[in-house]
Amino acid sequence: MNIHEYQAKEVLKSYGVRIQEGIVAETPEAALEAAKKLNAETGTSWYVIKAQIHAGGRGKGKVQETDSNGVVLAKKLEDVAEKAKNILGGTLVTHQTGPEGKKVNKVLIAEDVYYPGDSEPKEYYLSILLDRAKGSNVIMASTEGGMDIEEVAENHPEKIIKEWIDPKVGLQGFQARKVAFKLGLEGNAFKEMVKFITALYAAYEGTDSSQFEINPVLKTSDNKILAVDAKVNLDDNALYRHKDLADLRDLAEEDPLEVEAGESGLNYVKLEGNVGCMVNGAGLAMATMDMIKLSGGEPANFLDVGGGANATTVEAGFRIILKDPNVKAILINVFGGIVRCDRIANGVVEAYKSIGDISVPIIVRLQGTNAEEGARIIDESGLKVSSAITLKEAAEKVKSAIA
């Protein structure tokens, strides 16, 4: 589960990670009040206004309606409301949102941390994630922090520092010092970075996250180390242990169909294809998507109805798939193990009748317990549904349906 930058920073702060302070606002007027409060609390006189969406590249992104960047600087208090107005309510397009962009409902008013001092501010990159190949967490860092880190990773991989953490013992002090040393830091900045990495790793483990990305990590002109941005991805499977973090979910940032599917207990991911698929089991779902591609189609979604599929879940799946205008056919591929194929077939028939006229062809492939009985129920239903027993037969029927 992704969370917003302002939420991520509050999580990090609770673990002792130094952050760029800021206050979230949903209107231009609230943005101005936030700036005034920030001035009183931090003394900042310049204000960074940052769009809050679940996507990176905001600084280079453009708000379609006003041509404003997603991250702007107000050098005067009286400019804050106008600059926030140019972002709020607009559609921000970045390299991660795609051309459709995302609507901006909130902005973060943050303090200026690039102030003059004894040395030049310096940006770094730092992330923590699970390396599945090695079965351990890895800290990735680079001296080339900022908006072009993807280009650095692609063209200059030697500039990416990696430090793997043994899960049996956790992060050791020497490892945090090793990363700070490789980043070329010394003196107080070195000590600050070691503290930063240690606190960040504690936050990563304490929240059961799947990824932390801090880009940039800033060394200020007076050698403080702090998070200017924060991208945190929480592990959905661990949210039952973190009710407070689960409450940070912003449904407005998620695909409405995926939200609806979740409320019905379905695992659904929208894709860009033309064949809707409904399957019981994630492994079978992946195989079904491959089969659709081999038949000349493109999967329109990943939809796993689970092992206890019934008329209610099948109907919910139908309704969600049919809301995608790109769908030209629907393939239901079910292995009857926990649930019998005849029950699935009856569920399909009941759901079809409940929804009413369905304009796209439906192919139902049933295999397993009572598969032949299930196929007979489908074939004798009198509905515009055709059955299949083998994967090859189902693929041929999909190909014919979308031709």
Automatic annotation (TrEMBL):
Enzyme class label: ligase
One of the GO biological process terms: tricarboxylic acid cycle
Keywords: ATP-binding, Ligase, Magnesium, Metal-binding, Nucleotide-binding, Tricarboxylic acid cycle
Chain positions recorded as Mg(2+) binding sites: 215, 229
GO molecular-function term, one example from the UniProt record: succinate-CoA ligase (GDP-forming) activity
Sites where the protein binds ATP: 50, 57-59, 113, 123
Domain ATP-grasp fold succinyl-CoA synthetase-type: 2-217
InterPro entries for the chain: ATP-grasp_succ-CoA_synth-type, ATP_grasp_subdomain_1, Succ-CoA_synthase_bsu_CS, SUCC_ACL_C, Succ_CoA_ligase-like_bsu, Succinyl-CoA_synth-like
Domain annotation ATP-citrate synthase/succinyl-CoA ligase C-terminal: ranges: 278-398
Record-listed E.C. numbers: 6.2.1.5
UniProt cross-references to SUPFAM superfamilies, sorted A to Z: Glutathione synthetase ATP-binding domain-like (SSF56059), Succinyl-CoA synthetase domains (SSF52210)
Source taxon at top rank: Bacteria
Pathway(s) it belongs to: Carbohydrate metabolism; tricarboxylic acid cycle; succinate from succinyl-CoA (ligase route): step 1/1
CC cofactor: Mg(2+)
Cofactor note: Binds 1 Mg(2+) ion per subunit.
Catalytic activity: GTP + succinate + CoA = succinyl-CoA + GDP + phosphate; succinate + ATP + CoA = succinyl-CoA + ADP + phosphate
Binding residues annotated for substrate, in chain numbering: 280, 337-339
One cellular component term from this protein's GO annotations in UniProt: cytosol
Known partners and oligomeric status: Heterotetramer of two alpha and two beta subunits.
Stated family: Belongs to the succinate/malate CoA ligase beta subunit family.
Protein task: Succinyl-CoA synthetase functions in the citric acid cycle (TCA), coupling the hydrolysis of succinyl-CoA to the synthesis of either ATP or GTP and thus represents the only step of substrate-level phosphorylation in the TCA. The beta subunit provides nucleotide specificity of the enzyme and binds the substrate succinate, while the binding sites for coenzyme A and phosphate are found in the alpha subunit.
Protein name: Succinate--CoA ligase [ADP-forming] subunit beta
